[in-house]
Write a structure and sequence with these properties.
single chain, 151 residues, alpha/beta, Rossmann fold, 4-stranded parallel β-sheet, two-stranded antiparallel ribbon, 34% helix, 19% strand, globular
Length: 151
């Protein structure tokens, strides 16, 4: 395990946030709506990466999940939540810009940031390796927390 993942594994899920790009949704069938905090997944497709990854983070008791239409909203979310750790799923461009912005925002707590790049980008109907992402979300987690829901 690399140094970043080792640090990440020591941070409780209640101090972690998951950042997902809205482009992971299935654009033609998604029933989610947007509000000031991003895409609000309604669990309309069990095979959708957004649904699968969000549900996993909720089950482990993550501090929050943001499904953002862009990097600015994700950065605002991190600034509000002030997590000790962040998992960021995005295209290379958004990851590069986002990691730098998060480091600048949260210098006093210096969150551990784990990145998961998209395996196919293009701003619509993008793809991530769900199994890799699910494995990363669960690092250091003992067991899913029943009935805990954070936004």
């Amino acid at each position: 395990m690399d140094e970043t993942l080792e640090r990440f594994s020591q941070i409780p899920p209640s101090e972690r946030v998951l950042l997902l790009p809205h482009c992971l949704r299935h654009s033609k069938t998604c029933k989610a709506t947007y509000d000031g905090e991003g895409l609000q997944c309604v669990k309309c497709d069990v095979n959708c990466s957004v649904n699968r990854l969000k549900e996993a983070a909720l089950k482990y008791g993550y501090k929050g999940i943001c499904i953002a239409p862009g990097g600015k909203l994700a950065i605002k979310y991190v600034k509000t939540k002030q997590p000790s750790a962040v998992i960021a799923v995005a295209c290379d461009k958004e990851l590069l810009e986002g990691v730098q912005a998060i480091k600048g925002l949260c210098s006093e707590i210096n969150p551990t940031i784990v990145i998961i790049p998209l395996t196919r980008d293009g701003c619509i109907d993008t793809v991530v390796d769900d199994e890799e992402a699910l494995k990363t979300i669960s690092i250091g987690c003992v067991a899913p927390v029943a009935g805990v829901i954070h936004n």
